[in-house]
Amino acid sequence: MNIIGRFREHKTVYSISYIVYREDKKNKEKEERKLETESRNWNSKYYK
Fold first, then answer.
1. Which intervals of the chain are annotated as region Disordered (predicted)?
2. Alpha helix (H) ranges present in 1-48?
């Protein structure tokens, strides 16, 4: 019982950290895309 309980706890922690990691990755990609479009806009504004 103790081992199963510990395993379940570990699994929960793992899945939570995985979700956080995934969200973090998504946000990073969003930020990168935003920066990319901003720099592109800036370039098109000043290099015409």
1. 25-48
2. 2-46
Quote the CA–CA distance of 29 and 24 in Å, as a whole number. 9
Q: Which residue has the tokens 């379940």?
A: 8
* Separation CA 16–CA 31 (nearest Å): 22
What the block records as the tokens of 34 is: 């935003």
Beta-carbon neighbour count of residue 16 at 10 Å? 10
pLDDT, one tens digit per residue, over 9-44 is: 777 778 888 888 889 999 999 999 999 998 888 878
* Residue given tokens 């000043």 in the structure block: 46
Q: Cα–chain-centroid distance for residue 41?
A: 25
